[in-house]
Amino acid sequence: MARGNGNRYEDAFKIETVKYINENHKSVAQVAREVGVNENTLYSWLKKYGQQPEIKAVKSFSSESAELRALQKEIRDLQEENEILKKAMHYFAKSPR
């Protein structure tokens, strides 16, 4: 159950909700409606739990995957440039001077 004593939510629920916001890149307002928690409460959870290592890992994962895609694209571009340079080298090596 999400609620602990009285009107308080358990820490595990708070952390999972913050992870959910970060993993799914949804707005706080949308998640607030989904889980039935006030937006301001979610913002305070984000502020409080957003710096924990497991939450940071979720945040950095998306940026790391974006960085990986960018690096893979750069590798493809460089490989293509190398192929063009090899062809040009063969062309100029064969032409008489």
UniProtKB/TrEMBL annotation:
SUPFAM superfamilies according to UniProt: Homeodomain-like
Gene3D superfamilies the record matches: Homeodomain-like
Keyword terms: Coiled coil
Entry-linked Pfam families: HTH_Tnp_1 (PF01527)
Coiled coil: 61-88
GO molecular function term, any single one: transposase activity
InterPro entries in alphabetical order: Homeodomain-like_sf, RD_transcriptional_regulator, Transposase_8
Biological process (GO), any one: DNA transposition
PANTHER family, alphabetized: PROTEIN DISTAL ANTENNA
UniProt protein name: Transposase
